[in-house]
TrEMBL record:
Stored InterPro entries: PsdUridine_synth_cat_dom_sf, PsdUridine_synth_TruA, PsdUridine_synth_TruA_a/b_dom, PsdUridine_synth_TruA_C, Pus3-like, TruA/RsuA/RluB/E/F_N
Gene: EOG090X083V
Protein name: EOG090X083V
Start and end residues of each Pseudouridine synthase I TruA alpha/beta domain: 231-343
Biological source species: Megafenestra aurita
PANTHER family found in the cross-reference section: PSEUDOURIDYLATE SYNTHASE, TRNA PSEUDOURIDINE(38_39) SYNTHASE
Keywords for the protein's UniProt record, in alphabetical order: Isomerase, tRNA processing
One Pfam entry name: PseudoU_synth_1
Higher taxonomy: Eukaryota, Metazoa, Ecdysozoa, Arthropoda, Crustacea
SUPFAM superfamilies: Pseudouridine synthase
GO function terms (MF aspect): pseudouridine synthase activity; RNA binding
GO cellular component: cytoplasm; nucleus
Length: 444
């Protein structure tokens, strides 16, 4: 068959939701790359269509009302500013990621800046000296995301306080603004500010973070937890993780060495069945795109007995295995950026009791609703399992984004993705990245 016709057929299958993984296995390395490029182009076109639709949406009455209210001029020159860290918690399941995007307003960052503008804490994003610690993807949650920015302040001196250009003196006060409290009153219920910290103007939430901790929650099902623990220990230390991520070479990422400080898999309850919940805790200095979800996917394969713990070492050996085998990532739903750590000397968190009570009350309401749904489902499952006399432990299947073939093909025997060097050469020819000798030398 003509390669172009083959590619066209595959892309059509992608649009129709057919098995992309099975299709890719049957294609040559060169055609795989063409398919990947075409899929990326399709996503770009769909994004552009969504942007145009949003531009054509009629302005709602609510928006008009907001514009009318916002027309009142607020004089920021009457206030000093303060450089602070904010700890932001969010349930990202129904959001398109943390970072602002052109084609949708349904992002955590967009909602955060709406609240900051509404409370007059910032004049604009562009003038706020804003940095974020992590870029969580669509569906990913966080308890410990941290952002740094300059906020309006009631004080004229103190850690992080500075006088902006054009400042017109205002009667001072000894009481600082209750940043968490006023933001939580206007943020959506899925997004909350837990604490704030006054910090030096030179500190950045992104560049001064010492380490990041991710949690990934999953049911035991039929997983062999001990084998997963054994396999996970090979990840500790500094390694080239190109086989445990999605390589973002098109955006200039050509170095894939990262350091895993610690990794644990712990039980969260005392149950001894497939419904018991576990947590994978992963601590590192920085992470690659989809690194945690790829790690979890491989550990699931080990836990299911489809791979041996040794496979982790094989994937980390990029000299022997420079090309990543094709495998599906684990779901984004259970992933949580749980903590971003900073020097205690430079970052002293401030907690407001009233704000914490407000957050806890809201979270308890969410917990109540969800635990009722979980309990109801569990009782129904218990009765169904007693009627069928069939013990199924498929709880993890929904957490892996991959088609399950009738005959399992081991990772090291699967179709391989392009090597890092091949990707660099491809994007360099398209002049999307510039390659130096240092970049080439960094690839092992």
């Amino acid at each position: 068959m003509n390669p172009q016709n083959t590619v066209q057929t595959k892309v059509t299958n992608v649009r129709k939701g057919k098995g992309i993984q099975e299709d890719l296995h049957s294609l040559s390395k060169e055609v795989c790359f063409i398919v990947e490029e075409l899929i990326e182009r399709i996503h770009q076109m769909e994004t552009h269509v969504t942007q145009l639709r949003n531009l054509l949406k009629p302005e709602s009455k609510a928006n008009k009302h907001d514009i009318k209210n916002n027309s009142r001029v607020f004089d920021h020159k009457k206030y000093a500013k303060r450089h602070v860290f904010l700890q932001v918690a969010y349930l990202g399941w129904d959001y398109s990621g943390f970072v602002v995007q052109e084609h949708t307003e349904k992002t955590i960052e967009a909602e955060l800046f709406k609240a900051l503008a509404k409370t007059r804490l910032v004049e604009s994003r562009e003038t706020s000296n804003y940095h974020r610690c992590g870029r969580t993807d669509k569906g990913v949650s966080s308890y410990g995301q941290v952002v740094s920015l300059d906020l309006r302040s009631n004080l004229s001196e103190g850690t992080g306080v500075f006088i902006p250009e054009g400042y017109q003196a205002k009667l001072g006060t000894n009481d600082e603004i209750y940043y968490a409290g006023i933001l939580n009153r206007v943020l959506p219920p899925e997004i909350r500010v837990i604490a704030w910290a006054p910090v030096a103007e030179s500190l950045s939430a992104r560049f001064d973070c010492k380490q990041r901790t991710y949690h990934y929650y999953f049911p035991k099902a039929a997983l062999d937890i001990e084998k997963m623990r054994h396999a996970s220990q090979h990840l500790i230390g500094e390694h080239d993780f190109r086989n445990f991520c999605k390589m973002d070479v098109g955006n200039g990422v050509v170095k894939f060495h990262r350091r895993i400080i610690d990794i644990h898999i712990d039980a969260l309850d005392d149950k001894a069945d497939g419904y018991s919940m576990y947590r994978l805790k992963l601590v590192g200095q920085a992470f690659l795109w989809h690194q945690v979800r790829c790690i979890v996917a491989v550990l699931f394969l080990v836990g299911q007995g489809k791979e041996e713990p040794l496979v982790v070492q094989q994937l980390l050996d990029v000299k022997q295995n420079p090309r990543k085998p094709q495998y599906g990532m684990a779901s984004e739903l259970p992933l949580n950026l749980f903590n971003c750590s900073y020097s205690e000397e430079n970052c002293k968190w401030v907690y407001d009791a009233d704000s914490l009570r407000y957050v806890i009350t809201g979270y308890q309401a969410m917990w109540t609703e969800n635990i009722i749904k979980t309990t109801m489902l569990k009782e129904m499952l218990t009765d169904l399992e007693s009627l069928s006399n069939i013990q199924l432990e498929n709880q993890v299947k929904s957490l892996v984004h991959a088609i399950e073939p009738k005959t399992y093909l081991p990772l090291m025997k699967r179709q391989k993705c392009e090597s890092l060097e091949e990707r660099i050469e491809h994007y360099a020819k398209k002049k999307r990245i510039e390659v130096t000798e240092a970049d080439n030398g960094a690839s092992t």
